[in-house]
Amino acid sequence: MNDATAALIVAIISYLVGAIPFGYLIPKWCKGIDIREHGSGNPGATNVLRTMGNEWGILVLCLDLLKGLLPVWLLPMWLLPSDSPAMLHLRVLAGVAAIVGHMLPVYLQFRGGKGVATALGVVIVLGGWGTPVAVATFLITFAAWRLVALSSMLAVSAFAITQLVVLYPYPSQTWSLLGFSVAAPLLIIYRHRSNIVRLWNREEERTEIGKRSSSVKNEVPTESDEDSAA
């Protein structure tokens, strides 16, 4: 199989896998509710956690993570020899397609989440040093402030900076990964634009692990809320 055909197959399958809306399907199948009518209205892990509890939010988080990890890990190996010079670039393409699928899922009229969990799955395979730095940044920031959006944005920023430092000396070998390491964090931060406004106005809701927010559960989603998801 030539590289162009492999790239097309990887892009399509990765997008369709990334677009599977577990944040919508799990509440629908297990509790009979449309998560878009509860809490912030977002079909993401954070809204599921706040609305239904820890175990459901963690389940959705893990499934969203696998949407990024599995296509990046398995598809290129299935389509190309392990020593193919295009292997890294095909993995990056799979990661981009999976993240875009999560953000713009065809199954939900292209209204999805921010791609943080799916991106984590991608960078577990791709990220190198940037991944543990990003995870540590998220955990420290979240422990301090309990703000998922702020923690996510700082984590992806730390990932981008670390990757630039590590990869910049070798651009000819890692140009696709270098581009991904900058573009994906910028896209994720852009998807947080409504959260940035709420953070600036000190209106962003804190997430307490182990506590279900009844106020979030019963609130009517606003138009701005519907633009944000985990």
Automatic annotation (TrEMBL):
<keyword id="KW-1133">Transmembrane helix</keyword>
<dbReference type="GO" id="GO:0043772">
    <property type="term" value="F:acyl-phosphate glycerol-3-phosphate acyltransferase activity"/>
</dbReference>
<feature type="transmembrane region" description="Helical">
    <location>
        <begin position="174"/>
        <end position="190"/>
    </location>
</feature>
<keyword id="KW-0812">Transmembrane</keyword>
<feature type="transmembrane region" description="Helical">
    <location>
        <begin position="116"/>
        <end position="140"/>
    </location>
</feature>
<feature type="transmembrane region" description="Helical">
    <location>
        <begin position="56"/>
        <end position="80"/>
    </location>
</feature>
<keyword id="KW-1003">Cell membrane</keyword>
<feature type="region of interest" description="Disordered">
    <location>
        <begin position="206"/>
        <end position="230"/>
    </location>
</feature>
<comment type="function">
    <text>Catalyzes the transfer of an acyl group from acyl-phosphate (acyl-PO(4)) to glycerol-3-phosphate (G3P) to form lysophosphatidic acid (LPA). This enzyme utilizes acyl-phosphate as fatty acyl donor, but not acyl-CoA or acyl-ACP.</text>
</comment>
<keyword id="KW-0594">Phospholipid biosynthesis</keyword>
<feature type="transmembrane region" description="Helical">
    <location>
        <begin position="92"/>
        <end position="110"/>
    </location>
</feature>
<comment type="pathway">
    <text>Lipid metabolism; phospholipid metabolism.</text>
</comment>
<comment type="similarity">
    <text>Belongs to the PlsY family.</text>
</comment>
<keyword id="KW-0443">Lipid metabolism</keyword>
<keyword id="KW-0808">Transferase</keyword>
<keyword id="KW-0012">Acyltransferase</keyword>
<dbReference type="GO" id="GO:0005886">
    <property type="term" value="C:plasma membrane"/>
</dbReference>
<dbReference type="InterPro" id="IPR003811">
    <property type="entry name" value="G3P_acylTferase_PlsY"/>
</dbReference>
<dbReference type="Pfam" id="PF02660">
    <property type="entry name" value="G3P_acyltransf"/>
</dbReference>
<keyword id="KW-0472">Membrane</keyword>
<feature type="transmembrane region" description="Helical">
    <location>
        <begin position="7"/>
        <end position="26"/>
    </location>
</feature>
<keyword id="KW-1208">Phospholipid metabolism</keyword>
<protein>
    <recommendedName>
        <fullName>Glycerol-3-phosphate acyltransferase</fullName>
        <ecNumber>2.3.1.275</ecNumber>
    </recommendedName>
</protein>
<comment type="subunit">
    <text>Probably interacts with PlsX.</text>
</comment>
<dbReference type="GO" id="GO:0008654">
    <property type="term" value="P:phospholipid biosynthetic process"/>
</dbReference>
<keyword id="KW-0444">Lipid biosynthesis</keyword>
